[in-house]
Amino acid sequence: TRRLTGKVALITGGAGGCGLAASELFAAEGAKVGIVDLPQSQGEAVAQQLRDQGYEAIFAPADVSDAAQVQRAVETVEAAFGAITVLMNHAGILAALPFLETSEEEWDRIMAVNVKSMFLVTKAVLPGMIAAGGGSVICTSSISAVVGTPMEVLYCTSKGACHMFARALAVEFRDRNIRSNAVCPGFIATAHGLREIDLLKQHGVDVSEEAIAAAQGRLCRPDEVAKAALFLASDDSSFVNGAHIFADNAYTAI
Ligand code: NAD
Hints:
CATH class: Alpha Beta
Structural class: alpha/beta
Number of strands: 7
Radius of gyration: 17 Å
Order of helices and strands: EHEHEHEHEHEHHHE
CATH architecture: 3-Layer(aba) Sandwich
Mean pLDDT: 97
Bound molecules: nicotinamide-adenine-dinucleotide
Distance between the termini: 37 Å
Low-confidence stretches: none
CATH superfamily: NAD(P)-binding Rossmann-like Domain
Helix content: 40-55%
Strand content: 5-15%
Largest sheet: 7 strands, parallel
């Protein structure tokens, strides 16, 4: 049996990387999927592909750091499918640069896309989710929320905020049957992950294949993040709330 039958999922960053893997997996598991991603992303093509396979999916373009665009996108998904009962706050961007070379503009941009976005999207989605009787919020955090990865003060700060956003939300909304958890991947073989490795190399950090193998065995696959998110989205995790699930092959356990 499919694990998300009857659920309406909104996935930010759902057109690329692990977000795309989650869009595909959630649709295959029976959810109606609203893909929220940048207007210039592959969102429309991904939604069309899912519809061609007989699934229900729409693309609702938005920059998740823009309140008006977020509101429009959430309304679009709700108008198409009804109240959102699974929200995956996945969109996020990378910053890998020396702290002393970090500009105020860069700080504000990363915090807006990685942190403020969760506030905007979740605030827009929760009234409908509450009225529907509850749901599940999944935030894509990172090993960088608990490990100070080099050249990533800004990125780690944003992921630390994401980590606690997921946890504190769980406490405030558990009496309304809303669960909130985080998935925390290690290095993943996506555009984001490969660019990160490239940038870190430029800044002299050892992220060679050997170094990554020593830290986490191999790169994480996007579907491995999506499957952890599926568990949190589904009723299989009905009593898992405020948790951080690491998909890092014990990187942070060592
Ligand atoms: P990715 O770059 O492959 O895909 C991210 C998607 O988000 C893209 O489709 C992009 O268009 C979209 N996006 C970016 N900015 C957006 C915005 N302002 N509004 C709407 N959509 C936007 O990345 P990925 O590897 O899937 O990673 C995304 C998430 O996973 C981030 O939250 C990141 O912090 C986290 N993460 C990634 C890694 C890694 O190694 N790749 C590790 C740990 C955590």
